[in-house]
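Weekly modeling sync, notes
Attendees: S.R. (lead), two postdocs, one rotation student

Agenda item 3: backlog of single-chain predictions. S.R. asked that every request posted to the team notebook include the full sequence so nobody has to chase files. The rotation student volunteered to paste the first one in as an example of the format we agreed on. Action items at the bottom.

Example entry:
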Amino acid sequence: MHRAVRPDRRTLLAGVLAGATAALCGCSSTRTSLVAAGASPSLRPTTPSAAFARLMEGNQRWVSGNLHHPDRDPNRRQLVAQTQKPFGSILSCIDSRVPPELLFDTGLGDLYVMRTGGEADGPVVTGSVEYGPLTSGTPLIVVLGHQRCGAVKAAYTSLRDGKPLPGNLQAIVRSLRPAYAQAVRKGGPDPVETMARVQVTLLTADLRSDGVLAPLVSRGSLAVVGAFYSLDTGKVEVLTSAPS
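Predicted structure, as returned to the notebook:
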């Protein structure tokens, strides 16, 4: 009988290295093909200042029209299909002219987005805002008001005239009452815009002092920023608490 020939250690080691090299090349080729096909090669911002800078850079592209449209293709969809880790959470209005993903030139898996009429708040809304920082380490929250807000105008008129709105629209009015009271004290030529801006600053302050978010803000791992969007120019103006 013939004895089986056993490969020596050098031969085995060469085979292992060859397999590892092939695997690495395959991974590299896959990543190269994803990037070439449009998948975003940029790293996720992990600090409040980096996340804020990413958003504002995107808004500058929106204003200028030089859009990158990142993270918006089937490859990106596959990359985030099993897990997500957005770098920002945006609480904005339901207004059809203020889509956060577009005006910040972001894409799939980049942002948590909560939208309510006039940024009206409540336990479910606050819980939704808390979700990103508490489950994904999201380093940035932006409360985004906007110019000529219909929900704020309706609430302002309802409170001024003492006429409740129908159905659950009155819940929005109740949520915005503190902003209305402060806007009346402030005065100004456009009380509705004043109220919209006040709502952003009040809600930003509330979130910064929120029981579970405040420790993250104190440690510097989370920033809560108040901002205001111009329908005319497309520009996002910072109202309060921008990270340095």
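Discussion: group reviewed the output briefly. The radius of gyration is 25 Å.
Action items: rotation student to repeat for the remaining queue; S.R. to check formatting next week.
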